[in-house]
Design a protein that fits this description.
478 residues, mainly alpha, Growth Hormone, Chain: A, 73% helix, globular
Length: 478
């Protein structure tokens, strides 16, 4: 509202050419840095998977279930700090706070190269989870702050797809280091080099993020003064404003009583049991197909390409047809088919089972779709940060459980874990159906309210920080 103080009574009109120009400027300044940082976010927490076949188990004395607990420990840190970090994202300048978290997690990751035992590794993994807890909710809030609801699905899909690019790059780098250190032994172990390279790169990108990503439209150095007003005006249709630093307890209560909140949370828990298992054990899973440890690093990279293609295509088609949930469900169906191939094909069918693993990488589509729907469909800044925190707490719980399904006694095939994954994804399809029909029903109820003869629309209600349930003008995106 302060941004419009000098424009009382003046209608601000944005023509299509101006809107495209603004969108192009915003995209070029925000999307590249968000993509690179989010790719590092995935790479940094899954570097442990590459290290697992590069000698870390022997070097720091991992035995029994130790490696499983290292996979889970990251999410204990993430879980413990998720709600506090969402409150800080609301209270503090979002760009600066996010940059500080990025730099901190890069520094923590470099410390992994100095780890000598299981206890030290546990501490580093826990702190890594604490530092990275701000990234996904922060990026979701930045996306909702700068883009219209019709643009958010595509943009979220683009920056989240860099998980896949990170898997490709990480696999190639780890393979190169593994082969290089085998042929030309280095003074430090190859897995330590991986942690140092990824950690220092993260620190550098955190510094870049600090100077590029603003806290809001009004302090964006790369926008002219008049364009800052237009950048705010173009998101008026979101009915969500651009952020509010005041904590509103009634919005927390509404979030906790809203069925859609718990549908998101239960989806995150159940869907991320498979994610937690696969992301920490994919190198060992590929080895179980009959490939060598070095081959597993290289052959895991096409899975990243599948994730990139499905996320970008899914985000675009979801916005294009106005139905992110239906499009995302196709990715989950592909993943179920892929895991069925891994379980059902003969053991000597190496290539068929590897292809099944690649199909499982489409499973991120619904998670990303729901992340974008939290940006689009949850209004009221306190409510949005609360739902985002609960969603990512569910994500943590699922990822903590996931590695525990890959029990050492089931190696090398891990059939019980694979069957658990199929069942979880089947339940997730049912949750997606509930969210779809609930949103349609809510839209119908709001349409009835707006159709009443005595209905009055509030002036400037787009900037009043109303929740989606309070605002009768709010329409849920499917």
């Amino acid at each position: 509202m302060k941004a419009f103080e000098g424009h009382q009574g003046e209608v601000i009109h944005i023509d299509e050419a101006t809107n495209r120009r603004l969108l192009r400027i915003i995209d070029w300044h925000l999307i590249p840095i968000m993509c690179v940082v989010y790719g590092l976010n995935y790479l940094d927490k899954t570097t442990i998977s590459y290290a697992s076949v590069m000698g870390i188990r022997k070097d720091i004395g991992l035995v029994g279930n130790d490696y499983q607990w290292l996979g889970s420990m990251f999410y204990f840190g993430y879980l413990g700090w998720e709600y506090p970090t969402n409150r800080l994202l609301q209270r503090l300048p979002i760009g600066k706070y996010s940059a500080c978290c990025i730099i901190a997690w890069g520094l923590v990751l470099t410390c992994f190269a100095a780890v000598k035992d299981f206890g030290g590794a546990v501490a580093i993994r826990f702190m890594l989870g604490v530092c990275e807890a701000a990234v996904t909710p922060g990026f979701a809030l930045i996306t909702s702050q700068w883009y219209t609801r019709k643009e958010q699905g595509t943009r979220t899909g683009i920056w989240f797809s860099f998980n896949g690019w990170a898997q490709i790059l990480g696999g190639l780098v780890a393979y190169g280091i593994a082969v290089g250190t085998r042929k030309h032994p280095a003074s430090i172990a190859g897995w330590k080099i991986v942690f140092l390279v990824t950690g220092l790169l993260t620190v550098a990108m955190g510094v870049v993020f600090l100077f590029i990503v603003p806290d809001n439209q009004m302090n964006a150095r790369w926008l002219k003064k008049e364009d800052r007003i237009l950048a705010i005006e173009r998101i008026r249709t979101n009915n969500q404003g651009v952020g509010n630093r005041h904590f509103k307890f009634y919005q927390v209560r509404e979030a906790l009583l809203d069925p859609i909140t718990w549908a998101f949370v239960f989806y995150a828990i159940i869907a991320d049991i498979p994610n937690g298992g696969i992301s920490n054990f994919f190198s060992q899973l590929i080895v179980s197909f009959g490939y060598t440890s070095e081959q597993s690093l290289l052959y895991g990279t096409p899975g990243g390409a599948v994730e990139v293609v499905t996320l970008i295509l899914g985000g675009y088609l979801g916005d294009r047809f106005g139905n992110r949930i239906a499009i995302a469900s196709l990715g989950l169906c592909l993943s179920i088919i892929g895991m069925c191939l891994i379980v059902g094909l003969p053991l000597d069918n190496l290539h068929g089972r590897l292809a099944g693993y690649y199909l499982t990488q489409a499973s991120a589509m619904p998670f990303v779709a729901f992340l974008s729907l939290i940006s689009s469909n949850i209004a009221g800044y306190t409510k949005k940060t609360t739902v985002a925190a609960l969603y990512l707490i569910g994500y943590c719980v699922g990822n903590i459980i996931g590695p525990q399904t890959f029990r050492p006694k089931d190696a090398p095939r891990y059939v019980p874990a694979e069957i658990t994954i199929i069942c979880c994804w089947g339940v997730c399809l049912g949750i997606m159906a509930f969210i779809y029909f609930w949103s349609r029903w809510q839209n119908a109820q709001k349409a009835k309210v707006r159709a009443q003869p005595d209905y009055v629309r509030l002036e400037n209600q787009e900037w009043l920080d109303l929740t989606d349930r309070e605002n009768s003008e709010f329409v849920y995106t499917l």
